Amino acid sequence: MNGTTDRRGARGGRRAVITGIGVVAPGAVGTKEYWSLLSAGRTATRGITLFDPAGFRSRVAAEVDFHPEDHGLGPQDVRRMDRAVQFAVVAAAEAMADAGLAPGEADPHRTGVTIGSGVGATMALDREYRVVSDGGRLDAVDHAYAVPHLYDYFVPSSFAAEVAWSVGAEGPTTVVSTGCTSGLDSVGYATGLIREGAADVMVAGAAAAPISPITVACFDAIRATTARNDDPEHASRPFDRTRDGFVLGEGAAIFVIEEYERARRRGAFLRAEIAGFATRSNAYHMTGLRADGREMAEAITRALAEARIAPEAVDYVNAHGSGTRQNDRHETAAFKRSLGAHAYRTPVSSVKSMIGHSLGAIGSLEIAASVLALAHDVVPPTANLHEADPECDLDYVPLEAREHRTDTVLTVGSGFGGFQSAMVLRSAA
Amino acid sequence: MTAAVVTGVAVAAPNGLGTDAYWRATRAGTGGIRPIRKFDTSRYPVTLAGEVPDFRPEDHLPSRLLPQTDHMTRLALVAADQALADAGVDPGARDPFSMGVVTASSSGGFEFGERELRNLWSKGGQYVSAYQSFAWFYAVNTGQISIRNGMRGPCGVVVSDQAGGLDALAQARRLIRGGTRLVVSGGVDGSICSWGLVAQMAGGRLSTATDPDRAYLPFDAAAAGHVPGEGGALLVLEDADSARDRGARTYGEIAGYAATFDPKPGTGREPGLRRAIELALDDAGGTAADVDLVFADAAAVPELDRIEADALTAVFGPRGVPVTAPKTMTGRLLSGAAPLDVVTALLALADGVVPPTVNVTPLPGYGLDLVVGAPRPARLETVLVLARGHGGFNSALVVRRAGA
After folding, report:
1. Quick check: is B154 in a domain?
2. Which residues pair with A422 in a beta bridge?
3. How many Å lie between the alpha carbon of A21 and the closest alpha carbon of chain B?
4. Is residue B144 one of the residues assigned to a domain?
5. Cβ contact (<8 Å) for A117 and B159?
6. B251, part of any domain
7. Would you call A397 an interface residue with chain B, using a CB distance cutoff of 8 Å?
8. CB < 8 Å from A in window 180-239 of B
9. Cβ B125–A217 below 8 Å, yes or no?
């Protein structure tokens, strides 16, 4: 399986490997803390504290306990950067240190940045709108009360700009914004740039801080989020019969991704290879999913083909597992359609049960969980799964992490707009 | 490698809705910058914009789509229809998985978002629209275009301020090279609303002029910022073989592309634009001598105009290549600006004419051969389009006459 030809990657050309990870997650700032949380099956969901949620239908979220000053961010950084950007630069710094790269050490011209973001600087925009409209009293908002960095909240390419400045990147830089698959698609985009030779190093990942009144209200309006307000620790229940919607989350995961030969030459620790990636769209409904899972299955099949592996080689499926009724059935169908009988044999789990659904960031947080599963040969559990929905009949690794030889992971995402993405990660060391 | 060719185009611009109206106006140097009509600007220092005229969404779109879409999404859906019709493609007759959509965005459906923020803060959370969850976000145009046209292949969305429009086309080319047969790509954008104007004013680059002919003057001694606008363009990209097999008319090839990011301010390192140009030419397998025309980013901020002029003279020599900025007729359309420039470049290739930069008296010190006043006839084979985004994004894209 791992002969020289295979090592050259799907197109016989350049390959992309992850050499550094940084994580800011609910209940866990730092990669080590993140794995402790996931492998213990601990949940980080709680009653919303970031604002007073009285009057909202869903009042539960997975929040990060984050103090920017602890990470070297000054008052001006905090003013300039939306909370999601703060997460991103802190996670990027950890990823660079993990990869053993000082900022600017890699050739800036050959280093790029892609940051996934589903809803941009929502928190800052919500906060600033409230001020310039004087609490909604002014129809024509008052520019005299606009903060100077409002433009950076207006166009979230500022996310990528801040990370590029922080790591000293001057290569191709962008934000990828495909809703809830942004975190996967951002890393997929970066992988494409490395493979085609536009960059040798990509600092790529995703960040989100959507826990703000406007976001909570818009998911309330379509009843997508949980109303289990009296039991927030157990509110995120993917695949469970009693699930009633997702729990909003926040956070960031950023990776240093390098061209394989370069990483090997400099003696970097190769955490995983990004072996396959594909996206498809359902062209069906902005928020609805066809029950058959066909498009996600197509994305999985294509990603496996690009990685040149059979479905049977997948050791672990890191699911989207949002905990909405339609999602969990949709992706269960997609796994069966793409993996066949192997779907019933391979462990499948959702870390959203522990860290909630951080929209544009979650795909990268799930890549981080997948890479850590490879490292530890441990599959993180689906917390709060006591009795599966009868239509969800796979092995979802309920409640407790499982020791399991893991060399190849499939991680998937699904989101508003119809986006379906799949990525295959495999051990590279 | 598979060549990505353009087989269909559609335009929604302040000086012309639809490709023909736009191109007629643009060749004639007729601008579309006017006092903002959509909302009362009397309290703001900025009062001009490029608004798309005469757009009646109900003439083009089913009524059920109207309550769930922002203005810029409606423009985009109609442009996608027109681009596909222009390409002679019936998406319903194709394999859904062979078609994708990649658009650029800058601020999503900001006008829609403003209304819902107003509902939230003036009335309460329960008054927020059930469509808010997707009508405002950056992926909305790609999602809605894919749904309307049954495109189930790879889709994408990039945000890199004004440079994003070129990044989207490059991603579309990447998908074509990867085996997707057809990709609808480009950008239609705009945030002409009170909240959007205030957010753009905060960027510090908007002109406060009140005379539309004196408001957006790149490379001019009087350059003092730009005029915001709405609109853009969508293109149909196909792999050259399948376009040829079905006998499609081809506007040109997306021949080269590169993106760079400026060094952090204060480092004293050279801005990235020159490198983006050189890398894009290299990617196109050509040299500076091959380029017949450049569409400038044309920021109309003296420091940024200087950086662009220096990059162009470094690559092409002083007055070494004709340069134009038809966006002086439309204002800057956020992520829609660069796709519109690419379409304009393709139309210029076809007609052998360079559309002018209007209202500008170029400062000789920039060393640019800026095409001003009347359109200039020219034999065009290869055109370079530049776009820059707030914060330091630089993208360069080369289009070439098909088969050249």
Report:
1. yes
2. A278, A412
3. 23
4. yes
5. yes
6. no
7. no
8. 191, 194-204
9. yes
For the beta carbon of residue A11, count every other beta carbon within 10 angstroms: 11
Three-state DSSP state, A8: coil
Test A218 with B161 for CB contact under 8 angstroms.
no
Q: Which of B9, B3, B85, B4 is nearest to B343 (CA)?
A: B9
pTM attached to this predicted model = 0.97
DSSP percent split of chain A into helix, strand, coil, nearest 5 = 40, 20, 40
Of A93, A228, A230, A267, nearest to A166 by C-alpha is: A93
How are beta strands A419-426 and A408-414 bridged, if at all? antiparallel
Domain assignment present for B250? no
Burial per residue of A158-176, b for 16 or more beta-carbon CB atoms within 10 angstroms, e otherwise: bbbbbbbbbbbbbbbbbbb
Domain boundary among B192, B213, B245: B245
* B37 and B136, same domain (yes or no): yes
Confirm or reject contact between B65 and chain A (CB < 8 A).
Answer: no
Q: Is the ipTM of this complex over 0.85?
A: yes
- Co-location of B25 and B131 in the same domain: yes
Provide CATH code, domain A276-426: 3.40.47.10
Residue A357 a catalytic site member = yes
Cβ contacts of B138 on chain A, cutoff 8 Å: 117-118, 120, 156, 177
Are the C-beta atoms of A351 and A318 separated by less than 8 Å? yes
Query: Of the candidates A151, A165, A214, which has its C-beta nearest B199's C-beta?
Result: A151
Do B147 and A198 lie within an 8 Å CB cutoff? Answer: no
CB contact under 8 Å between B137 and A133, yes or no, is no
Structural domain total, chain B: 2
Homologous superfamily assigned to A4-265: Thiolase/Chalcone synthase (3.40.47.10)
- Write down the catalytic residue from A234, A330, A357, A392: A357
**Chain B residues close to A279, C-beta within 8 Å:** 154-156
> Are the C-beta atoms of residues B116 and B136 closer than 8 Å to each other?
yes
Q: Each residue's pLDDT tens digit in chain A (429 positions)?
A: 333 333 344 446 999 999 999 999 999 999 999 999 999 999 999 999 999 999 999 999 999 999 999 999 999 999 999 999 999 999 999 999 999 999 889 999 999 999 999 999 999 999 999 999 999 999 999 999 999 999 999 999 999 999 999 999 999 999 999 999 999 999 999 999 999 999 999 999 999 999 999 999 999 999 999 999 999 999 999 999 999 999 999 999 999 999 999 999 999 999 999 999 999 999 999 999 999 999 999 999 999 999 999 999 999 999 999 999 999 999 999 999 999 999 999 999 999 999 999 999 999 999 999 999 999 999 999 999 999 999 999 999 999 999 999 999 999 999 999 999 999 999 996
Catalytic annotation present for A376 = no
- Select from B140, B153, B199 the Cβ nearest to the Cβ of A150: B199
Nearest CB to B164 within list A161, A174, A286: A174
Shortest Cα–Cα distance, B148 to chain A (Å): 7
Cα–Cα dist A68/B270, whole Å? 31
Beta strands in B51-141 (DSSP E): 99-104
Tokens representing residue B286 in the block? 């050509």
CB contacts < 8 A, A to B, total 275
Closest CA to B65 of B162, B138, B136, B131: B131
A190's tokens: 């970066």
